[in-house]
Structures are given as C-alpha cells and as structure tokens.
Description:
The chain is an all-alpha fold and 311 residues long. It is built from 13 helices and two strands. 76% of the residues lie in helices and 2% in strands. Strands 1-2 form a two-stranded antiparallel ribbon. The termini are far apart.
Amino acid sequence: MSAVNDTKFQFTIFLLTGIPGKEDVYLWISIPFCLMYVISIVGNSVILFIIKTDPSLHEPMYIFLSMLSITDLGLSISTIPTILGMFLFNSREISLDACFAQLFFIHLLQCMESSFLLLMAFDRFIAICNPLRYASILTPWRLSKMGLLCVLRGVVLVLPFPFLLKRFQYCRTNILSHSYCVHQEVMNLACSDITVNNIYGLSTLVLTIGLDSLLIFLSYVMIFKTVLNVVSHAECLRALNTCVSHLCAVLLFYLPEIGLSVIHRFGNSSSHLLQFVLGYFYLLVPPLMNPIVYSVKSKQLRARIVRVFIN
C-alpha cells in the first residue's frame, strides 16, 4: 500500500546533483566554476563594450559577434548561479516553476546561439563568395531583421517546453543528474506518457541544431570551393583565416550539444561519465571560449581591447 501511495505523490521541488562522492571537496571544485563565470561575464561584456563604442567595428561580422556575446552572457547568468549554489552552499533544492523557467531560458538561448552561428556563417559566405555585394546585402536594416527572426524562432519553438512539462506529475524521483534543469532530463522524471514531449523535443532539436549545422556545413562547402579557385595562395590563406574563429565557435557549440542530446535519448548506464562531462562542457565552455577565440584571431578587436586596458 505504501508503494502505491508513493507512486501517487506529486513532488513540488527537484533536487540538483553535483558530483556524487566528491561532496567533501565541493568548495575546491567551485573555484574553477567561479573563474569560468567571471571570465565569461567579463569577456563577453568587454566584447560588447568595444563593439558598441567603436564605430569602426559597426560591421556585420562584429554585429553578429555582439549578438553571440549577448546570448553567451544570458546563458552564463541562467546556469552558473545554480551550479555555484550547489558547490558553494550545497543548495540542492529548486522549485518546479524555477526549474521550468531555467530550462526555458537555457534552451531559448541555445537556439538563439545556434541561429547566430548560422548568421555568422552566412556573413563569411557573402564576404568570400560575393564580396562586391557584401555591403548591399548585409545592410543594418537586414541585420536587425535577421536578429529579430532568430529570437522569434527560439521563442516559438521553446515556449511549449515548460507548458508540456507542467501538465505532468513527477512521482518516480525528483533527483536531477546535474546542477541545472534541461527538458530532456526533467521529462524523464515524469510518471506519465512522455511520447509527445519526446517527439516535440527531438523535432525541435532537428529544426534548430540539426538544420543550422547542416546549413553551416553547406556554407563552408561553398566557401572552400570558392577559396580553392583563388589563384593566389596568400589570398586563399587570408580568406580562410577569417573563418578560423567562427569554425572554433561552431565546433565548441555543436559537438557537445549533439553528443549530449544523443546520450540523453539513446545512451545507457555506461555513458554517465561522458554525459556528466558534456553536460557541463556544452553550457560553460562556449561562453568562456568565444570571447577569447575572437579576441585572439581578430586583429581589430584585439587592438581595441589592448587600447582600452592600456589607456
């Protein structure tokens, strides 16, 4: 009888999980997370400040970079506080509504980041394959419309997630395997049929990550085809060098994102360690590395940053 009663119990909170078996060193583990948080916030804020205050950087490539930095800032703010609360204060509890809100913003910002990476690939495609029409195609008005469409696409696709999850009862367990909430994991805790959520989540993944990564791949196929037809070896290398930072950002974002989604849906018990590593990597590393990669590879941006800190 008690087992039957337990299955009908509706949890009002979820319990976050840090690193099982390492509770005695949580304070030390929190140090790299704090550093990553500070570097992400400062790095992306500096990028935004430099681009906003320097008129010479008001170009499509840097406007798209500012959109990416805003998304990375939002992603850091949405995830790091619960992670630090877990490791610093052992604050494990999160209400259902707070969990649904967090997963909404996490998935929305990831969808937006994927869209902005696609726009940056389109920018490189136009700059290399059709340079004479670059300024006429990527006008400020079109850039603003592109950015707005990316935000609207994310909101439309991700908004159903919390509503689909809110209709469930959570009576199997209330323990999450990470220090944050994502749709794939929360829906697996429901004691109801999750077929609709599974199909919609997979469809959303295909329409965002899958479609965007495919279009980025095709754009680089066209870029490489154009570059290989360039007679001058120096010009060929110069054109490819402008794509290096974007390629790094694409790999940092898509590889762990796709890998984690596959593990969540098709993984088995032997993939717990990989799931744990990818779970933190795909949320924390891109916001940390993107400003560093672009600052190193862009001479204009690097020079402005050095000038700001020296003066």
